[in-house]
Amino acid sequence: MIVRDFNNIIENDRERVVSDAQWSSVRMLLANDGMGFSFHITFLEAGSEHTFHYKNHFESVYCMEGKGSITDLATGETHEIKPGVMYALNEHDKHTLRAEEQLVMACCFNPPITGKEVHREDGSYALEDS
Ligand code: 9YT
Fold first, then answer.
1. Which of 11, 52, 98, 107 has the CA that lies 20 to 30 A from 86?
2. What torsion do the CA atoms of 57, 92, 28, 70 make, to the nearest 10 degrees?
3. Which residues are listed as membrane-spanning (predicted)?
């Protein structure tokens, strides 16, 4: 069994904490945990906007705190994001996420990320060996 404490990670396991200018993410589970998915708690700053396109991964995201919206860039459709709402990028959907208030999201990736990825210019993460 794997048991990890978010607060302990923040204090003692900084390798699991990744930050960009306007988001940060705590990787609770990564590929080497062998679960077949990774699990992240992600914070998106109030007022920020992000375009991501996870071409190589499926992702589901559950909003725990905050307020914002997500636009599916293929259809132009925009959905409200608030606590209790989940979105799943089941078609590797390119999307823009906006945080009106800081968003706190619980995210799962399949395949799991390794922790070494950086966002490429097209908004995707590479697979480990691509
Ligand atoms: C909200 C969202 O797409 N989170 C993705 C996870 C985060 N970018 C990370 O941990 O890499």
1. 11
2. 160
3. none
Which domains occur in the chain, in start order? 15-115 (2.60.120.10)
For residue 107, the surrounding DSSP H or E stretch is: strand 95-110
Whether ligand 1 lies within 6 angstroms of the CB of 125 is answered as: no
> Among 17, 22, 42, 124, which residue has the most ligand 1 atoms within 8 Å of its CB, making it the best to mutate?
42
Give the DSSP letter string of 21-87: SSEEEEEEE-GGG-SSSEEEEEEE-TT-EEEE--TT-EEEEEEEEEEEEEEETTT--EEEE-TT-EE
